[in-house]
Design a protein that fits this description.
By secondary structure, the protein is mostly helical. The protein is built from 13 helices and 4 strands. Helix 4 packs antiparallel against helix 5, helix 4 runs antiparallel to helix 10 and helix 8 packs across helix 10. The N and C termini lie far apart (43 Å). It is found in: Cell membrane.
Length: 320
C-alpha cells in the first residue's frame, strides 16, 4: 500500500504570521473603525477624531523613542518616569518663562538618557535592568522635586496644550513633525543605518568598525528627550503637573504600540508607520471600551491579548 505524503502546513503558518506582523495592525485599526462606525454614536464626527488624535499624541511620541531602543535590541522602561520628571521640572522652572523651563527639562531628560546609555553601552548592563533602575529612581526624583499635584497657570502652556494652527491642535502638529523627523533619521541617515546594523548583529557591527557605543548612547538620549516632549505636552493639556500619575504605565503602552506595529523585539528593524498605527490601535481600543462603559481592567486585558497576538505573529522572525 502506497503511503500518502502529507504536505506540511508550516510554510502557510509562516506566511500568515509574516502577514500579521506586517499588516495586522492596519487590519486591526480598520476593524475598530468599522465597529465604532456601526455601534458608537457620533464616532465619525470631526470633533471625535480631533479628540482621539490629541489623546494619542503623547503615546505616539514616546513610542517613537521606544522604537529606536527596540531597534537596537534594547528597551527603555524609564520613559514614564521621564514624563513625570519633565512635568515636575516644568512646574518648578516655568517662572523663568516657557523657553527656559523647556531648556531645563531637556537637560534633565538628556541626563537620564545618558545614564541609561552609559549603563547599556559602557558598563554592559542589560537594557531592561538599566532602564528599570532609572524608571524607579526617575519617578522618585520627580516626586521629591514636586511632592503633590500643582495647577499650572501660564498663558504659553495653555496655548501649547489647547491651541491650534488652522484648526489643527499643536499637539497633533508636533507629533506629526516628530514622526517625520524620526522616520527620516532611521531611513535616510548614517545614524539610522548604524542603528539597524547594531540591532541586527551587534558583534558584526563592532567588527565592521561602527561606533556602537556612541550610537547606543544617542538612542537612549533620543528616547528620553521624546518622552520629555510627551510629558510637557501632557502637562500643558492637563494644565497641571502630577508626577505621581503622569506617565504611569506609559512604557507598556509604548512597547505595545511598537511591537504591534511590526518592530521585532530582536532588533534590526524599526517600523515607524507601524508604530503610528500601533499607537492609534491602542487609543481606538481604549476609547471603544470606555464609550461602551466597560471598566479599565478590560482595556488592560485587551492590550495583553493584542501583545500576545503580536509576539505570536513575530515568533521565529527574529534574527535575519
Amino acid at each position: 500500500m502506497t503511503g500518502i505524503a502529507v504536505r506540511p502546513a508550516a510554510p502557510d503558518r509562516a506566511r500568515i504570521g509574516h502577514w500579521l506582523q506586517r499588516y495586522g495592525v492596519y487590519a486591526g485599526v480598520g476593524l475598530l473603525l468599522v465597529v465604532n462606525t456601526a455601534l458608537t454614536p457620533h464616532f465619525l464626527s470631526v470633533e471625535n477624531f480631533r479628540t482621539q488624535a490629541v489623546q494619542v499624541a503623547p503615546v505616539l511620541i514616546v513610542a517613537l523613542g521606544m522604537a529606536l531602543a527596540i531597534g537596537t535590541e534594547g528597551v527603555d522602561l524609564s520613559v514614564g518616569a521621564v514624563m513625570a520628571l519633565s512635568a515636575s521640572v516644568t512646574a518648578l522652572y516655568l517662572g523663568y518663562g516657557l523657553p527656559g523651563a523647556l531648556l531645563v527639562v531637556a537637560l534633565f531628560a538628556a541626563a537620564v538618557g545618558l545614564a541609561n546609555g552609559a549603563l547599556v553601552a559602557l558598563v554592559g548592563v542589560q537594557p531592561i535592568v538599566a532602564t528599570l533602575a532609572l524608571m524607579v529612581g526617575g519617578r522618585g526624583l520627580a516626586q521629591v522635586l514636586l511632592p503633590q499635584l500643582e495647577d499650572i497657570r501660564n498663558p504659553a502652556m495653555a496655548s501649547l496644550g489647547s491651541g491650534d494652527l488652522l484648526g489643527v491642535p499643536y499637539l497633533i502638529l508636533i507629533a506629526a513633525g516628530l514622526v517625520l523627523l524620526v522616520a527620516f533619521a532611521v531611513r535616510r541617515t548614517t545614524f539610522g543605518r548604524q542603528l539597524l546594523a547594531i540591532g541586527d548583529n551587534r558583534t558584526a557591527a563592532q567588527l565592521a568598525g561602527l561606533p556602537v557605543k556612541r550610537v547606543l548612547m544617542v538612542v537612549y538620549v533620543c528616547s528620553a528627550l521624546l518622552a520629555a516632549v510627551a510629558g510637557v505636552l501632557a502637562t500643558a493639556r492637563l494644565q497641571a503637573s502630577d508626577p505621581t500619575s503622569l506617565g504611569n504605565l506609559m512604557e507598556l503602552s509604548a512597547i505595545t504600540a511598537v511591537v504591534v506595529g511590526g518592530t521585532p523585539l530582536s532588533g534590526g528593524q524599526v517600523r515607524i508607520a507601524g508604530t503610528v498605527a500601533g499607537a492609534v490601535l491602542i487609543q481606538l481600543l481604549t476609547a471603544t471600551l470606555i464609550k461602551h462603559d466597560l471598566p479599565p481592567s478590560w482595556t488592560q486585558m485587551a492590550q495583553a491579548a493584542v501583545i500576545v497576538l503580536a509576539v505570536y505573529a513575530a515568533r521565529g522572525r527574529g534574527r535575519r
